[in-house]
Each structure stands twice: as C-alpha cells, then as structure tokens.
Amino acid sequence: MKDRTLPTPELLSAYETVPGMYLVLSAELIILTASDSYLKAKALNRAEITGRFIFDVFPPDPAVPYELGFAASLQEVLSTGKPHQLPLIRQELPDSGNKTHNRQRYMDITHTPFADEEGEVQYIVQHSFDVTDLVRAKKGVEQREKELWASEKHLGFLLNAMPQQVWTATAEGVINYVNQICCFDFGKNAAELKELGWESFVHPEDLPGCVKAWKKALQTQVEYMVEFRLLMWDGAYKWFLGKAIPLIENGTLRLWMGTNTNIDLQKSNEQKKDEFLSIASHELKTPLTTIKAFNQLMKKTNDMGKLQGFVEKSAANIFRLEKLISDLLDVTKINAGKMTYSMTEFDFGQMLEESVESVQYISPDHELVLQEKVEVNYTGDRFRIEQVLNNFLSNAVKYSPGGGKVLINSRLQQGNVMVSVQDFGIGIASNDLQRLFERYYRVDNSALRFEGLGLGLFISSEILKRHQGSFWLESRLGEGSTFYFRLPLSKTRSSKPIIQKPLYYKDDHITIAYHQEHRRLDVDWTGFQSFESVQHGGMKLLEMLKDNQCSKILNDNRNVLGTWSEAAEWTGEVWFPMIEKAGLKYFAWIYSPSMFSRLSAKKSVDIAVGNVVTQFFTDPDFAEDWLNSK
Questions:
Q1: pLDDT tens digit sequence for 240-252
Q2: What contacts 286, CB < 8 A, 6 or more positions away?
Q3: CB under 8 Å, gap of 24 or more: what pairs does 217-220 form?
Q4: 487: part of which helix (H) or strand (E)?
Q5: Angle in degrees, 0-180, between the axes of helices 430-440 and 595-606, rounded to the nearest 10
Q6: pTM of the predicted protein model
C-alpha cells in the first residue's frame, strides 16, 4: 500500500484557527489536530490529544448503539469514501462558567473524507455544529403544542361526556364543532353535520323562528334561546331547548358555545297534562250536568212515581261521579308513588263471586255469568284486586250497550291465577287495539300518567304490576272482546334449567336446540313470560349462539301465552345489538296466537338497534324455508 498523503502543516494550521468545531483525523483515525473552538468546548489542549487514536481519547459510549455511534460513522466514510452525518447527539460538555459541572449540548456531527486522485481516503474532517438552542426552541414549541393538544383533548372529553348536544360556532355563526351526542342523535359524523348545517334538522314549522332568534343573537351578541323540534336519526322529531352564549375577550366576540337539551318528555307531559285537565273537566261536567237536570225536574214534579225515577237516575250519576273522582285520586297517588297496598291472604274465588254479584246488581240489562270459579287462597291486596276485576266487568258492560251475556272464567295455569272477562259487544278495531297496546307496553307506564281516557285500565295495569302480574286482551270489531289478567301465586321467579347441555337447553320458559345441519338455533318459548324470563332466555340464547358460532335463529312463539310487553324495549334496544355483535344475521320470528304477544314482538323489532334481518311468520314451514335459504 502506498503512503497516504496527510494535510500540509499550513492546512492543519488553518483548521486550528478556523471558526467552528473541527477535528482532523488520519485514515487510521489518529487525531492530527483540532480547532481552537473544539478544544475550548471540550476543555482540552491540543498537545494532549494530537497523535493519539480517537477512541483512546474519546471512548465509545456503551449506552449508544454501535450503528448510531462514531465508530460506525467513520467505518461508513472509510468504506464508501462519502460524507456521513450522524443522528443528533446529546453530549455532556464542561461548563465554561463552572469547571466542576457539565452541561448538556446537542451536536450535529458530520464526517467528511478527503481522497486522492484514485479515490482512496487520505484523512477525515469531523465538523460539530452546536444546535442546542434550536433543539430547545423546537422542544418548547412541541411542548406547547402538546399542552394545547392535551387541553383540547381534555375539553373534547368533557364535552363528549355531557349528556346533551354541545356545539360551538364562529363569531359569524358558522358551526365548527359538535360533540358525539350530536353525531349519535342525528346519525351523521361531525364533518357531515357541519356540511349540512343545523337548519337541515329543524322542523319546517320551527325554522323561521329559530333563524330569526339566531340572527338577532349574532347582531346583538346576547344569549340565544329557543325551543324547537329536531329530526333524529330514526326519522322522528323531538323537542329540544337550544341555548348559546357568546364568548367575548377584550371586547371581541371569539365564539359561541351552545347546547341543545332534550325536553321531549317535558313537552309530552305538558301536552298530556293539558289533555288530562280537559278530559277530567269534561268527564266531571257530564254527571254534574245530569244531576243538576234531575234535581230541577224533581223540584217541578209532584208525581211520586216520576220523582222516584229521577232520584234513582240522579243517584246513578252521583255514583258515576264518585267513581271518577276516586279514579282521579288513584292516578294522582300512582304518579306520586303513594298508592298503598295491604297484602293479606284471602279466598280468591269468594272475592270473584262477590265482585260479579256487585256489578250484576247495577247492570240489570246484562247477564253476568261466572262459568268457572277458581278455588285458591291468594296473598295480595284484596281491595285493589277487586278494583281491577270491577273495572274489567264495568268495561264489558259499557261496551255491550245492547245488553247480553258477560262470561267470567278463572283457573290455575302454570302457577298463575288466570281470570278472563268476555263480552259480545262492539269490539275493538285492530288499529285501536294497537294504540291501546302502545299505551301500556312500557315498564313504567309513563305514557299514560296524564291520559284521561282509560283511567280505570291504567290503574288496573299498575295494580297488577305491583302484584307481578299483567293484563292483555283479544278483540274483533263487532264480535266483542275478552280481557285477561294473571297473578302469579309465587312472588319469587326463577328459571332453573331442566336440561342444560352444550347443544340443548330447557327450562320452564324456553327450549333452545342447536340445529347442526343448518347451523342455527331453534327456540321455543313456552307459557307466560315476564321481563325476568325474557331477559334470562335472551342471555342464554346469546351464550349458545357464541358457543356454536351460528348466525341464524328460528324463534317460535306459538306456545307463548299472554303478553311480555314490559320486556319489548329491552329486547329491541339492548338484546338485539348484543346478539348481532355475537354473530346473529337472520332472525325468523313465528308469531304467538296472542295479539298482545304479537304486538310486543313487533314493537321490539320496530325499535331494534342494528342490522339483523328479521322476518315474521305464522307458518313455521315458511319460516324454516326462509331461514335455510340464507
């Protein structure tokens, strides 16, 4: 190998005095010299480092990986003959103001080779550039950005945690932020909502007033407040209270902070309260007017026969007025949670017989026939249960204006006392039957708390619920109606498995079997169902669907009795999303012969959240064919 050419003494002297931090190395990595600035920064003198191997003077830092250190960089330069820049390096350098302390500096270091005409490296110059101030400035900016981002994230978290719609707008009134509640309520993402604009969701009747109030707020920079209806994701309008306040800093309007609070329930209750007062005043006025008329007739007549008739008719209206006032007081007690119950054991059959006799006495145009009387002692509030029965009997008489028979039956069935009251009167149309169901399907019955029509049925429903019972009815227009109610003999409900295997489950309320050929679950619901039994059966279905990894369910309700309306909301809003997540795609639902059970099924599907494809059937063969085709 020929001798390498080293820098001339003049060139080395130039490197020593040039501004900047320079270290000159031979191709064998022997230190040839260093600039004054380099020596000063390192607190070294030239004599103690010149002629020494670089790594004897500056041993490699064991904490720095080889590929990121000086050795790898210098090897790269010697191998390729090209300059190499190291990643940013943090070094501990002596503090010029305090010799006993070091200070952290960030260095940008480059190794540049100098080669002869044949391309062989003769020596290397290391240039170190102190970028500490730049790094600290950048870190300061990054920290501020991080803090700002954290602050915005924290604010966003708080706004999303609020149980109402929250939005902000620019000083000009353009929406620039909406929280997740807005996105959920409207079924759109934030970008879509901002693009469509809030006006797109306001009810057409409310829009002019809202726009006018918003423009006035923007002009005057005062609080914005309005009540309006907004279009929800499901196509329904709901009432909201919209409020926005201006954020003003140093006399300048920066933004508007707004909220939309759901007041649909309050609005609905206000409307129902108005209806209640209107209906109550009308219902009270009718018997009072009649009583007043008969009193005037009694004053004018001396005929004792006529007088007796007027007295009896006046007394009948007084009884009607007393009954209405009593119902109104009961509704008030129920709404206030002050309805009291006295639970004692009594002879149910005797109570039934006495109630029928009592209503028969005041209904001479009808024949009330107690066909079957159950012989059982029942523990409950006898007065309240009798109130339910009297209401059913009175309705049967009321809606059979032409007289005729009213048939009353009672029996024990699946651990329940079952009572039915059948009339042959005007009946109820199917659309009115559905409307009646809509009033009572909710667990808390809040929809009826201010409804005047059907006060007796509302009170009966609440009494039965307090006894863990339920009511339902079947009716045909022009043929009459049958009202049913049931009362469980045991107040403790359980669904203990009779058979429990990986592919088969059975208890008193449900049977589930895995159909291996078609990879589906076959479900047979049996008897009376409650919220607890529906919830238990639904969760067992979920478990077996996951375990057997199937996506189809054949849901047979032909053996379901009565109604399970109190579980309809849970089924649609909670269970369907859970079981869809577990893998359900197709759901064939075979109807129960009970109208209220059918309406419960339809209600749960109507309000169901998710994309499960559900089809109703009356014929099980058609249901199987449809499901097997999927």
A1: 999 999 988 888 8
A2: none
A3: 217/244, 217/246, 217/256, 218/172, 218/173
A4: strand 480-488
A5: 70
A6: 0.54
